[in-house]
Amino acid sequence: MNQKYYLVSEHMFVIFVLEFIYKFRNSNMGRKEIERTVHKPPLFKVFKPTGVAGNILEEVVLSIDEYESIRLVDYCKHSHEEAADEMSISRPVFTKMLEKARYKLSTLLVRGALLKIDGGNFHFKNNIMKCLKCEQLFEIEMDKQIVECPNCGNVNIMNIAGAYGHGRCCINNNKRRL
What's the CA angle centered on 92, arms 38 and 99, to 5 degrees? Predict the structure, then answer.
């Protein structure tokens, strides 16, 4: 009887330890993720292969800070160090983020997946405004406002950063960094 009780309690202890390790590894007990600085919002949120319905495609989500890492290094040709400084993060963190972003891009190219750009822990430095009449784009600082289109005078202006859920928080963040 004691031997059976011992085996059951040992088994329960092993299960308890394994559950604890699983919860510990999957918890966010590390340092808080630093908010990254993104120069401006992406103009487009979704890319997909032509001729295929989006609802049947595998979805790859590229965070906005991962998008910014690709933009800075591959499009603007910055070094990793310059790009990390611009995003207000360390170079090793930047390099890891860039590798993750490049893997996601290669996945969507090879598999023909749908790319969605959304999410991440970031603040915009600048904003893009779009006139809904003439479709002119204007890059402005986050704390500035445009009430009418300088091109055609239309008052229907779309706030691109607002489409990503950002605005006032980015203005306050930029003031803190000065």
Answer: 75
Report the run of H or E that residue 161 belongs to, with start and end.
Answer: helix 160-163
Q: How far, in Å, CA of 178 to CA of 165, rounded?
A: 23
The domains found in the chain, sorted by start residue, are 36-123 (1.10.10.10), 126-177 (no CATH)
Conformation bin of residue 131: beta by default, left when phi > 0, alpha when psi is -120 to 50: beta
Provide the whole-model pTM: 0.71
Q: Please, which residues bridge with residue 149 across strands?
A: none
Q: Which of 115, 121, 131 is nearest to 165 (CA)?
A: 121
- The tokens for 73 are 């290094």
Instruction: Let me know the angle formed at the C-alpha of 50 by 132 and 114, rounded to the nearest 5 degrees.
Output: 85
For the chain, what is the mean pLDDT? 82
